[in-house]
Amino acid sequence: MSDPHNYPILRRTVFQFPAIDNHAHPLLKEGHRDAFPFEGLVSEAQGSALTNDSTHTLSSLRARKDLAKLYGLDPLTTTWEQLKEHRKTIQYSQLIEACFQPTNIQCLLLDDGLGGVEEVGQDYQAHDALTRSPTKRIVRIEVVAEGLMKTVLTPHLGTDTLDVAPILSQFHDSLYYAFEADARHPDVVAFKSVVCYRTGLDISTFISQASLKFSILEIFKTYQAGGRIRLCHKALNDMVVQVALEVAASHNIPVQFHTGLGDNDITLLLSSPSRMQAIIKAYSNTKFVLLHGSYPYTREAGYLTATYSNVFLDFGEVFPMVSRRGQENILRQIFELCPTNKIMWSTDGHWWPESFYLGSIQARECMFKILKEMVEDEDLTEDEASEIVKKALFHNANALYNLGLAPDFDDTAGT
Asked: Boundaries of each Amidohydrolase-related domain copy (predicted)?
């Protein structure tokens, strides 16, 4: 076993340097702390695949041990059900504090467009109390678009015919101005798209008017019949993305894209970022952030990040949803090709404070192991490895999102 005192500079940087969590979601309100199955902490599965199968994954078995230690329980004997019962006995504010204190997260960037946030989630500003720097907001563009579509279609309910052309024009213009207003808001630092879930990442650079009109007619029929408005028509979804990309470029804010790992609402073959190559080329002045390491398409994401100056790669969510060896392989694949000034860490924390805890401690453990190996192989010096950690945890996100923060860290301590 290697000497635990080896590489003290790298060790201190990895485990103590503050982090900007560049993609996360709100915590549950105290009164709704058990609103969703706790198994969602370690899996994107749904239904019986979540409640029956997810606790048998290696990532879940590891998370169970990590959480048992956090709760002060025996990591070798505590079961998943015992974990769930024990956390109910912990005061919610104390649970949040216990989870966040070890993470050393200095700033949270929250996508508050996750379904259910308005009913059971905390407001993004409520998270300011958890970090040393104020929380910033990421606007989910499909949520904005669906609200505007409802606004333009509601006056036409009950009519037998629909003049689609002016409605399309009204929707496009209102979408543009809404994105403009969001981009100007001092708390908004990025847009986020879930087009990956809706119609896939093969985003068109040209969209026919006929396809757009047909999409609106289909949405109107569903809405008129009492269904909810959901953007899941390729032409319209691609248009929404295009408008967001245009506005983002004019305000120098990035657009985050869900890529890869997700629930069963995703068509896996359409979740590879390689399908975004045409849109990345077409909007060369817009900064694209590929989320979740694009797993299992990490190498494709690395290629895009290395080849296009406007593409950046986040490596969140795989902590804790992938096994330890899987996490290590993902990080190795990222380092194969990605420029180290373009990678960023996140928790993809959501609902449960434990998601922020696991996303942080597991990522830091993984970074230390992989970078330590690179130092031992003489690919890097210890100082170079430490600088990569600082960039991945803080500096890259600080620059990309124009946060203007200074890391709360004393570089001279312990030297």
From this structure: 244-403
State how far the Cα of 217 lies from the Cα of 222, in Å rounded to an integer.
Answer: 9
Contact indicator for 18, 393 with CB cutoff of 8 Å: yes
Query: Measured between alpha carbons, how far is 273 from 259 in angstroms, rounded to an integer?
Result: 6
Structural class in CATH, domain 8-141+184-204+250-401: alpha beta
Which residues, including other chains, have CB under 8 Å from residue 324's CB and lie 6 or more apart?
A: 58, 59, 62, 362, 366
Q: Return all residues near 1 (Cβ < 8 A) that are at least 6 apart.
A: none
DSSP per residue over 367-407, as a string? HHHHHHHHHHTTSS-HHHHHHHHHIIIIIHHHHHTT-----
3-state secondary structure 314-365: ECCCHHHHCCHHHHHHHHHHHHHHCCCCCEECCCCCCECHHHHHHHHHHHHH
Task: Give me the residues paired with residue 190 across strands.
Answer: 138
Cα separation values, 135 from 92, 110, 266, Å? 20, 7, 29
User: For residues 322 and 293, is the Cβ–Cβ distance under 8 A?
Assistant: no
User: How many CB atoms sit inside 10 A of residue 72's CB?
Assistant: 9
What gap in Å lies between CA 293 and CA 213, rounded to an integer?
A: 35
Classified as helix, coil or strand, 293 is helix
Residues of the chain under the 70 pLDDT cut: 1-5, 413-415
Task: State the Cα–Cα distance between residues 47 and 402, nearest whole angstrom.
Answer: 40
pLDDT in tens, 342-401: 999 999 999 999 999 999 999 999 999 999 999 999 999 999 999 999 999 999 999 999
* 283-298 residues labelled b (16+ CB within 10 A) or e (exposed): beebbbbbbbbbbbbb
